[in-house]
Amino acid sequence: MSSQVHVAMGSLAVSLDQKHVLETFVGSCVALCLFDPHARVGGMAHVMLPESYKKSSSKLNDSGKYADQAIENLLLIILQNGGKLGRIRAKMAGGANMFTHESGTTLFNIGEKNVHAIRKFLKLYNIPIVSEDVGLNYGRKVEFNVKSGDLVVSSRFKGERRL
Amino acid sequence: MKNSSEKLKLRKLQSVLSSYIESSTSSFSKLIHEPVHQHFSKLVDAEISKIEFLMPEILEDVFAVYIRCEGDLRIGMMFFLPEAESKNLAARLLKKPQKNLTELGKSSITELGSIMTGSFLTALSNETGLHIQASVAGSSIDTLRSLMQPSVSYIAKKSERVIVGISELKTSDIILYFIVMLDPHEIKKILAKAGS
Questions:
Q1: Is B38 an 8 Å CB contact of chain A?
Q2: What are the angstrom distances between the C-alpha of B119 and each of B75, B90, B124, B166?
């Protein structure tokens, strides 16, 4: 029987427990999951903003807030728990543009910037994105199964998808 | 744990924000030709990770209008109500029954959000002398948790905490929620000038 671990806005969680399912809700934010399928260790960050510009994040509960720090912090904990850099894979969901003007003009495109920043920083570590469900204009419930590496994304418009 | 001086500041801020929201309430009332009562239900200074748990517990999807304000202060404002109730509100604004929420219905509620933001900012500016410009309003239907994220991210660019004020504007059969989000470091700008 699995147990849900909620990942709050701007925070992150890493688990070695095969029963754990990490879950969160994202709109413009991105649920970024990094995992080593061999070591079966994985984590999820709830990324709110593209870049920290070297602003230090002192508390663990908001260490998923910025894309650059979220990746560094997730990697650090995964490597400390048996993960190896060459085996680590990424999956992500979210980065929606939640609000549009009635003319169709894009407003407040923070979601797109978050996705772009995550791609950029993952590239620095040569971490491949093996699946994703990003962009568009709706919120997503995201569940990451540490044991299987499955990412289940549910939304108002698309129902449930397994990535 | 907050000290008594911080609690006092929050109480004063609640009173000040409530008076500005009263201007928005008055505009709302005029537009629907019905009395509207404001109940300021919550003002909290919270860590970002806690915000989603402080929001009203609405499990169904909501129709939300979001406006962000920049200038002497950064403010995120969001108006929302359950999607099912949004048809009633649109019907009142358009004076026509709404079987489903049409594009015109959505537009009418979005415009209501713009007008209410304008009333809030005018009251704030008159009282404090601060100059703030509002963005174009954006609207959407989704879960409250998803919709609040752009607003929290906007404030969180500069701060690790967010001040969230939640007010309920009640008509005879509709509750419209009015959320104001502020950077805690900026509230002194309001408190220093309000009522001076």
A1: no
A2: 14, 20, 9, 17
Span B44-78, pLDDT tens digits: 999 988 888 888 888 899 999 999 999 999 999 99
Task: Quickly list DSSP for B113-166.
Answer: HHHHHHHHHHHHHHHH---EEE---EEEEE-HHHHTHHHHHHHHTT-SEEEEEE
A-B contacts (CB, under 8 Å): 104
Closest CA to B45 of B168, B145, B154, B180: B180
Residues of chain B found within 8 Å of residue A105, distances taken between Cβ atoms: 136
Measure the CA–CA gap between A46 and B184, rounded to whole angstroms: 22
Query: B108: nearest CA in chain A?
Result: A102
Distance CA A163, CA A68 (A): 23
Q: Give the ipTM of the model, two decimals please.
A: 0.85
Torsion sign (Cα): A50, A53, A59, A60: positive
Q: Does A145 touch chain B (CB under 8 A)?
A: no
